[in-house]
Amino acid sequence: MTKTKNFLVKLLKPFKFQFNGEGTEEEDLERIAAQEQKLFPFETLVSATKDFHSSNKLGEGGFGPVHKGKLDDGREIAVKNLSHSSNQGKKEFLNEVKLLARVQHRNVVKLLGYCVHDAEKLLVYEYVANESLDKLLFKSGRRDSLDWKQRNDIIVGIARGLLYLHEDSHVPIIHRDIKASNILLDNKWVPKIADFGMARLSPEDQTYVHTRVAGTNGYMAPEYVMHGHLSTKADVFSFGVLVLELISGQKNSTFNLDPDSQDLLEWAYKLYKKGRSLDIMDSILASSAVPDQVALCIQIGLLCTQSDPQLRPTMRRVVVMLSKRPAILEEPTRPGYPGTRYRRSRRATAASSSTAGTSSESSSRTFGSSTSATASTATFTSPRLYDPHGKRPMKG
Ligand SMILES: Nc1ncnc2c1ncn2[C@@H]1O[C@H](COP(=O)(O)OP(=O)(O)OP(=O)(O)O)[C@@H](O)[C@H]1O
């Protein structure tokens, strides 16, 4: 056994790797070991980040700080430090290494490598110059830096990245935490899907996998929040929320523009039904918007956030809808939010006769309005648990 592999065996020993029967632990180790060249010496990262100097800090997520750095060969990097010794951080680390090591797409952030140094676990990514979408969209008057063309390109890019993850990558992957802060923008405003700590392999022979709920409030699909039913359609829902946020400049989880609507989705749906969907558009976009394109994107956003997961389009269909003006587009039904009841329509039943599983009516239990919340189990019997970063262990 090579030195590196020995090291990986030691590193992984405390964790039980079970990727849905996808491979044995040994095979997983082999695969990771095959990435040997991706191991960064700790000293390299210390020197690249100037000893993780605060002036290089890019931000801090649920599992630790992220620092900017520069390697000797000139490459700029972002180093995520999962130094907290919680099991959650370790799981995140291993999950991200395992899943991201295998994916490569223009719209998915590139994992350059990783490093383990005593209790510190570090992930090394390509540096993405314009940072995350939330900072532009929701913070301190920076929304005007994104005109309609840029926002439309971002929507298309995220859709392609998600399609790749769901259908075209080595293994089908459900991201589980699609949201504005997990979309990074490079110097040409190309969006990159980031943060694979909670991602799961998609079940190939089932409609959904039953799992513990973890995600961010405002983006999680109702069937996932309330029943733990996880499928690619949960990502489709989050994508739809993001589309409506990009168009309106409003954050779904803190929406308060209309006292009669409980969130951005309901507001957009009501206006759509009145034939006034363009009213949700961010006023900053007035001079750059192409109304037909905006209307199409709103309709797609509403189709993606429908309460019934089986009515939501696949990402492949979304990419097709975005790439040309479709002659006929389905009419969106009510959007979903935790607590929504949905009854399968005849159209849905006909369209989904080959699949099973998510037809049960959801409970009427509703969630609070904390910006980051997670429910502990699919059956929802535990008390609600709030986490400042909106995440909980990923294993179901
Ligand atoms: N590759 C990168 N290039 C540039 N900036 C990055 C990169 N990765 C992360 N960042 C910055 O670091 C911040 C923290 O990222 P991280 O993924 O740890 O957490 P988050 O997504 O903001 O929050 P959470 O962990 O709750 O999902 C991001 O908001 C982003 O601005």
From TrEMBL:
| Keyword Transmembrane appears in the UniProt entry | no
Gene Ontology MF annotations: ATP binding; kinase activity
Q: Region labeled Disordered — which residues? A: 330-396
The reply on keyword Transferase is yes
* Keywords per UniProt: ATP-binding, Kinase, Nucleotide-binding, Transferase
Pfam families in the record, alphabetically?
A: PK_Tyr_Ser-Thr
Q: Which Gene3D superfamilies match?
A: Phosphorylase Kinase, domain 1, Transferase(Phosphotransferase) domain 1
Question: Where along the chain is composition biased (Low complexity)?
Answer: 348-384
Domain Protein kinase, first and last residues per copy:
52-328
Superkingdom per UniProt: Eukaryota
Q: Which CDD domains match?
A: STKc_IRAK
Q: InterPro entries, from UniProt? A: CR_Ser/Thr_kinase, Kinase-like_dom_sf, Prot_kinase_dom, Ser-Thr/Tyr_kinase_cat_dom, Ser/Thr_kinase_AS
Sorted alphabetically, which PANTHER family does this protein's record hold? Answer: CYSTEINE-RICH RECEPTOR-LIKE PROTEIN KINASE 3
Recorded protein name is Protein kinase domain-containing protein
